[in-house]
Design brief:
By secondary structure, this protein is mainly beta. The protein has one domain: Beta-galactosidase, Chain A, domain 5, CATH 2.70.98. 2% of the residues lie in helices and 43% in strands. The chain is built from one helix and 27 strands. The strands form seven sheets. It has a nine-stranded antiparallel sheet, with no helix packed on it. It has a five-stranded antiparallel sheet with strand order 1-2-3-4-5, with no helix packed on it. Strands 19-18-21-24-25 form a five-stranded antiparallel sheet, with no helix packed on it. A hairpin with a 4-residue loop joins strand 2 and strand 3. It is globular and about 60 Å long.
């Protein structure tokens, strides 16, 4: 493990990066947003390259923040109307500047400076406490994010507890590019999911759970990414992405029931990274047919996602 200065917060606090590596992968983490800033993986010629779209330093991460490798929460994705009801009480949330929705929990988690705890040469944890009422969400939420390198895989684990009934849907918002540069439309993707969630004009789910058959959202057989996407796939069985040029391949496994494909329209260099955000379904509190994201006081919310890398 190596630790070095990554930058200085506007209030003067120093922020360090942490580099952990094994014989297969090297990862660089930063406490700002509990982010994975770099991930080095080998291609078919055994040449390692950083396959994440990160930042040069902390100042760049703050000035040009697009949630690159950071944790989105309390609730990833969108909540329509920037409000929801729980136990008969309506909660009003911080809305987007460009529309009446709450996106990524008003960007609280990805802009927060988390506490880092090195567990061993393979594992690092980040801890953050969101105060009760923050951005309108009920309950104090204590969250732990754990990253572990296990051979040729990166394991991501979440734990969250609350002192009052609330809602939780956490994800990592990493942007992948298996070539490390250029646009990602000719990189390949397979998502074995039978349904997706159609969106309204504000990019919130309409409530329909639609079959992928005969649509551009059918990735069950694998195909180039090909175009712009920002969509949730429901109950994916297998998720894989790969690059025919470099031979890099990534398998994604998770215990969550959704994955959001986003092709990086907001990036400073558009479409140079794609996200596969494993998560629960967006706008779940306002969609009674969607799986619940409620977390009761005293209970623990847990989830895991594993990214496994090969080349050939």
């Amino acid at each position: 493990m190596t630790k070095q200065l990554y930058g200085t917060m506007p209030d003067g606090r120093e922020v360090h990066s942490y580099t952990l590596a094994n014989s297969h992968l090297k990862a660089v983490y930063v406490p700002f947003g509990a982010a994975i800033d770099q991930l080095w993986a080998a291609d078919k010629h055994c040449v390692a390259k950083d396959i994440l779209i990160g930042h040069a330093d902390l100042e760049d991460r703050i000035a040009n923040n697009h949630c690159q490798g950071e944790i989105a929460g309390r609730v990833a994705n969108r909540i329509s109307g920037a409000k929801f009801s729980l136990n008969g009480v309506e909660y009003n949330l911080t809305g987007n500047k460009d529309g009446p929705t709450c996106l990524h929990g008003a960007n609280e988690f990805n802009l927060a400076l988390w506490d880092a705890k090195l567990i061993d040469d393979s594992t690092i944890e980040f801890h953050y406490t969101s105060p009760a009422g923050s951005h309108g969400f009920p309950g104090e939420l204590k969250t732990c994010v754990r990253y572990t390198l296990v051979d040729n895989a990166l394991l991501l684990e979440f734990e969250a507890t609350t002192d009052a009934d609330t809602i939780v849907n956490l994800t990592n918002h990493a942007y992948f590019n298996f070539r490390g540069e250029g646009q990602i439309f000719d990189q390949m993707l397979r998502i074995d999911a039978p349904h997706y969630l159609p969106l309204d004009d504000l990019l919130c789910p309409t409530g329909e759970i639609a079959p992928v058959d005969g649509t551009v959202f059918d990735f069950r057989q694998g195909k180039p990414i090909g175009q712009v996407y920002d969509v949730n796939f429901c109950n994916p069985r297998d998720i894989e992405a790969w690059d025919p040029v470099t031979g890099r391949r990534m398998k994604v496994e998770t215990d969550l029931c959704g994955v959001q494909l986003y092709t990086g329209e907001c990036l400073c260099e558009q479409y140079t990274g794609f996200c596969l955000e494993t998560q629960l379904w967006p706008d779940a509190p306002n969609q009674p047919e969607f799986p619940s994201i409620a977390l009761k006081a005293g209970e623990t919310w847990k989830s895991w996602t594993r990214f496994t890398f090969t080349a050939g």
